[in-house]
User: What shape does this take?
Amino acid sequence: MALYDREYARQGAFGYESAYKSEAQIVTFVKETYKLFAASMLAGGVGAYVGMPFAGIVATNYWWIAIPWMLFGMFGLQMIKNKPGINMIGLFGFTFASGIIITPLLSHVLHMSGGAMLIGNAFFMTAALFGGLSFFAIKSAKDFTSWTKPIMIAFFIILAVSLINVFFLKSPMIYVAIQAVFLLVISVMVLIDTQNVIRGAYETPMDGAIALYLDFFNLFITLLQLFGIFGGSSDE
Assistant: This one.
């Protein structure tokens, strides 16, 4: 679901976008990015809370909701990101909708034994993993942005294998393996995106905020799915 067209900082963290930003501009850029990221997290949480009573409806009409959401993430946000006011409406509308989209998964886990605890554990583990990876990316002297192309290739390979498994193989073991590998891939994306943000390499703070939000979002979903598999049985 790393669907937003990051363009990975227009040729990477050492590309031309960051080359023309002063240190003060980068500091301002980073602050604005993380403010938008925090606000996006809040919008996503509100979306999940508001959408929970309608989880069944969302599940029934999932693709009618998810496909427009994905298309807007891939194309719509890029079209409006430089339009003040409209870009913020688009950003928070997108993140609010992301919360609604995961309500079927949340509802499913909640119906498991200890479901609320599983969700809480998944969220706190996501926060800890995201924070630890971000801190490591900031402090590390290694340029993780050089891993961008290999990690995106790995992402699309995982996507292809996942679709094959869903429609043909239908193997629970392969599903678990895919989730485990995807968790690793998204973890590397956190390193890449964090370094791009702290170097001011994105075109706008909104670009960086959405990249970080989708990293967190994907980490949470992947961990929650794994917790749901191993964490308990359904009460239904």
Summary: The CA atoms of residues 134 and 153 lie 22 Å apart. Residues 23-51 form the longest helix (29 residues). The radius of gyration is 18 Å.
